[in-house]
Inverse folding.
């Protein structure tokens, strides 16, 4: 089978690399695409992938978002015209993949874990043949977007690349290391949210050495550029504490036994609470309570191997769904 995967962010890229590795091993042709973004192409290089770059990320205005999205759809349509169509399209909610594949009659297998991403959910889930989601998510999540078929799995998406993950060694890390990550300020769901990561980092500096991961370049203007790219999954593996306004890096840390503090309204997600219930070292709180938790858990590594082994790898599920789609 010819399977197309489109990655729009760093998380998508890790997911796509894990899926591609599996499907290639099973003899399938894997077409990997991405867009210019601060995290996609640099991470793909680290993962040994060479995706086809189509379009770019430009969230400057609503018009720029729409225009760049439309350009990508047009390019994808040209790429797959005639008899060159893939048999199945897979994505972690790539809007352009869904628009293109649906228009060309290509079945879509979708993963999704962010109920608060209302715009993206509306533009992707209704197009999907099958939605593969964590059992942590309520049935109402996919039902409200008229999902045709939903396949749950026991775990979270990050298990796909953390289960057999071997972190790269990062030199010159001063201990104790506290990794702080900014909120995704340019995401549609984060508009009008305050970004207090830098002030929080200043407070945490009294406890250890701070490594602040910024989403974009220092000015926040050139969205496809950053001073340098960092392998966050490897970085948090070496950290003594992770504090994040986002969910992915916090879950990557917790699944590796590193205490992880998730803050802001968006931290109270179903998948975050799921890991808390499974006794992974994730702590959901407010900015005001971060320091207390940081003092309590800084440097306390947790043994989570048995817990991680009990979780289901979503790649296993995706492979079965893809291979069972009649083409």
């Amino acid at each position: 089978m010819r399977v197309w995967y489109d990655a729009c962010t760093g998380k998508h890229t890790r997911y796509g690399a894990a899926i591609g590795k599996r499907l290639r091993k099973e003899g399938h042709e894997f077409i990997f695409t991405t867009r210019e973004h601060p995290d996609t192409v640099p991470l793909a290089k680290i993962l040994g992938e060479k995706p086809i770059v189509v379009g770019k990320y430009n969230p400057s205005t609503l018009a720029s978002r729409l225009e760049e999205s439309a350009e990508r759809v047009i390019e994808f349509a040209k790429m797959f015209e005639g008899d060159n169509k893939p048999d199945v399209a897979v994505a972690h909610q790539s809007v352009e993949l869904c628009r293109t594949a649906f228009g060309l009659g290509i079945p879509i297998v979708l993963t999704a874990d962010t109920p608060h991403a209302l715009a993206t959910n509306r533009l992707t889930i209704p197009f999907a043949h099958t939605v593969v989601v964590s059992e942590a998510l309520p049935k109402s999540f996919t039902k409200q977007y008229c999902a045709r078929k939903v396949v749950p799995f026991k775990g979270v998406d990050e298990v796909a690349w953390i289960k057999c993950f071997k972190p790269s060694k990062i030199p010159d890390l001063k201990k104790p290391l506290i990794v702080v990550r900014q909120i995704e300020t340019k995401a549609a769901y984060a508009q009008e949210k305050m970004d207090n990561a830098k002030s929080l980092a200043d407070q945490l500096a009294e406890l250890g050495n701070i490594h602040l991961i910024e989403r974009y370049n220092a000015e926040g203007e050139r969205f496809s550029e950053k001073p340098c790219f960092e392998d966050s999954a490897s970085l948090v593996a070496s950290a003594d504490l992770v504090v994040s306004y986002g969910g992915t890096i916090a879950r990557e840390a917790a699944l590796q036994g590193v205490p992880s503090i998730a803050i802001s309204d968006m931290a109270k997600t179903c998948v975050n609470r799921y890991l808390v219930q499974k006794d992974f070292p994730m702590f959901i709180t407010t900015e005001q309570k971060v320091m207390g938790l940081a003092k309590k858990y800084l440097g306390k590594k947790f043994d989570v191997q048995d817990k991680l082994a009990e979780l289901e790898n979503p790649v296993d599920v995706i492979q079965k769904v893809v291979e069972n789609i009649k083409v």
